[in-house]
């Protein structure tokens, strides 16, 4: 049976599945193909993997109907505290009362559960989990993805949402600017003595940022945060091998009791950090979204939000074109998507890369200069407002789906 749909989305992660749901709200059908097993990705237990959802991204979740399922598990970000080694001169980003929070923190597991549940009830989405793509076809009249079991899933536009190592991007020959930071992010869930009061901490050390992201208390009332600790690649293996007691001692030393004593650490994982940006995010009947198009440092927690802006822009462009009788794979529509997203994604990528290098300069003099500059930002309301608008994702030309 030939089940041809508008989109063939390769990758059913947070960005790919959100794209399918957002497209469905506009009457656009899709096949979503993913290698992973949803049961493994939604298994019980907090492993520290969490995401900051900006105000604009939360608007997207509201507009596609998954916000009610997520709201009970949200931890609002009431404040972002930025510090150079916890020395004097930090910046506190606090929104005005009428603006609500700076975003919301969620366990990735909760995000996936909400997306899978919504997709299961949407007839315009055909989800194919645990599926291996063996061939990608982009022709004059359509696209297709051949699966290992022989099925051929057809559509008008191929969308690569496969992450940083996108084989579809590589196969299409889209050039990638890339460099390795020679750092690794260590992820873990923490239980600590004092409540975080909705504060996200970004503490910069010469070896890299040390981020504490607020999470909801667990059912027993324990105070929790997600840790994203950047270490030199040469030190990563040793840090990961530390026993829980030694690891907690290292964490407590860097936190200096801003949340009291850390009393428990969950499972640890890690991933290498690099910069990558694709100058071209479209080709014939192909569009890239999320990390397949741009992979940035987690220093500002904007990676997923950048991908969700891709989602909003692509869906708006496709819906506008289809109302005029154009098919989703039309070259004019893809060119508009690329123009819209190219500058925004590049500016965010360059800004996060710049912050990484700026705070990575060692020495007391460099630290003093940074703290002097941060003190200036703390006193200049317009500059703080600009930074907060960027964090909330409400700057620039937003797709309608990301507006309140």
Automatic annotation (TrEMBL):
Phylogenetic classification of the source organism: Bacteria, Pseudomonadati, Pseudomonadota, Alphaproteobacteria, Sphingomonadales
Species for this entry: Tsuneonella deserti
Similarity field: Belongs to the UbiH/COQ6 family.
Keyword line: FAD, Flavoprotein, Monooxygenase, Oxidoreductase
Name this protein carries in UniProt: 2-octaprenyl-3-methyl-6-methoxy-1,4-benzoquinol hydroxylase
Cofactor: FAD
Flavoprotein found in the keyword field: yes
SUPFAM superfamilies with a match to the protein in the record: FAD/NAD(P)-binding domain
Domain FAD-binding: 6-341
PANTHER family documented for this protein: UBIQUINONE BIOSYNTHESIS MONOOXYGENASE COQ6, MITOCHONDRIAL
Pathway(s) per entry: Cofactor biosynthesis; ubiquinone biosynthesis
InterPro entries cross-referenced by the UniProt entry: FAD-bd, FAD/NAD-bd_sf, Ubi_Hdrlase_CS, UbiH/COQ6, UbiH/COQ6_monooxygenase
